[in-house]
Amino acid sequence: MSKYLHKSHNVSVLLYHLVCPTKYRRVVIDEQIDEILKQTCLEIAKRYELEFIEIGTDKDHVHFLIQSVPTYSPTKIVRMVESLTARQVFAQAPHVKKQLWGGEFWTDGYFVNTVGQHGNEQTIATYVRNQGRQDEYRRLHQQQLRLI
Q1: How many Å apart are CA 128 and CA 17, to the nearest integer?
Q2: Which of 40, 57, 85, 130 is deepest in the core (most CB within 10 A)?
Q3: Residue 148 has pLDDT above 60, yes or no
Q4: What is the CATH topology of the domain spanning 5-147?
C-alpha cells in the first residue's frame, strides 16, 4: 500500500500505473522471466527511491504500480525500469534474446497513468495483480457492478 514519503523539503504520494509491452509484442514472459523481472524490481527499489506496489505480468507485457519521489519523471522511471530489467532478463535467460531479434526486450512505446491515493488505487492494484487471469478479473468486475 502506498504511503506518504517525507523528504527534507517535501511530502509526496506519487503513484504511476506503467504498462511495458515486450518488443514486437512477442510472447516471451513465462514463470522464469516473471521471477527475474520481480527480483530485479526488488533490487531497483533498494537502490533507487522507487517502491513497486504491484507487478503483474502477462505473456507479452507487464503492468507496474510504482510509487516514486518527485525527483524522478515518469519517463526517467520507465527508462530505469526497462533498461535494468532487460539487462537482467538477457543475462539470466539468454534464450529470450534469440526470440527477440535486434537485442531489445521492451518496445519503444509504453503507457503511464497517474493513480490517485484515494479512490482507484485499489482498483488498479487488483487489475495489475490479476494480469494473465482475465476470467477471474471479469468475474470480480461483474460482482462489483452488481453491488452498484
Answers
A1: 9
A2: 85
A3: no
A4: Alpha-Beta Plaits (3.30.70)
